[in-house]
Each structure stands twice: as structure tokens, then as C-alpha cells.
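Project standup — Tuesday

K.O.: blocked on the structure for the chain from last sprint. Re-posting the sequence here as requested.
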Amino acid sequence: MINIDVSAELDGFWSDNGCSFIVGEDTQGLQHLVDTSKEILLDAISQISGGVRIADIGKLIETRAKKAGYVVIRDLGGHGVGRSLHEEPDAIMNFYDRHDKSRRFRKDSVVAIETFISTKSSFIETAADGWAFTGNKGGFVAQHEHTLLVTSGKPIILTATNGIE
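H.V.: unblocked you, prediction finished:
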């Protein structure tokens, strides 16, 4: 399994996009993890509109992951995107934060929604190179991410290509 997470800037505006996938034969049996991460991301995105509580999206991601037999990484999450790669709202997490009752998605804002679905780990550790991550309990992590425009209805996925998500 490999993960590619790409950020891009055009004319002063940023986007963020990521995808995990299996290369070659699935000898570790991880296709279900990858598929689950992608399905959860698309389900979470379909529930986002202006006024929706950010914590409720975290709850959806966490609940779906647990139901599929996985856990979520609790110290990585989505974020606002715009004139810089990371803007408000920060910490759009993959779990339900019962203390985060007031933050809501704003209509006409741009956010990157990410899933971090794991077979064992709940937290990450950063490697000595400052870039690579490993899970605190080992196992595997699948990540999927899209940048989207929040609307009053269904969001617009800005990083989808030719209708393929």
C-alpha cells in the first residue's frame, strides 16, 4: 500500500488531495482498509454543508471506521484551505470531540477533508526525517483527502477529476 498526498497552488490559491492504494498484489489484505477509507471520505463529504457541526463529521468518520473494524488516527485531520495550505478551520478531526460544539462549516468556505483509518494505531509518530509517519501501535493507515467548496447544499469537490472521486 502506498499513499500520495499532494498540495498544489495556482494563482495564489491552494488545494490538497490524497489517496492510498494497493500497488501490485494485495499480499497484506489491505484493499478493504483502502476501500473503507475512501467510502468514509465520500460519505462524510456528502454530509457537509454550511451550518453543519464540524464535530458531527468527525463522529460520522469515527463511527463508520469502528463499524468496519478499524480505528481512526486522532492527531491528524482536515483543515481550511485558501491563500495558504492550512487555514481556519483547523483540526477537522476524524473523531467526535464532545468539547467542540460550536464550530460549524461556513457556506462558501474551502476545506480539505481527510480520513486517516488505521488497523491498529490511534496516534502517529514522526520519523527522524520530519516527514514520514508511523502509527504508535504499528499496523497500517489509509488516507484519502479532497478539497471542497462548502455550499448551502451538497459541497463541490474541487479535487475530483472527470467525475472520478
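K.O.: great, moving the ticket to review. The longest helix spans residues 31-46. The domain at 29-157 is CATH 3.90.230.10 (Creatine Amidinohydrolase).
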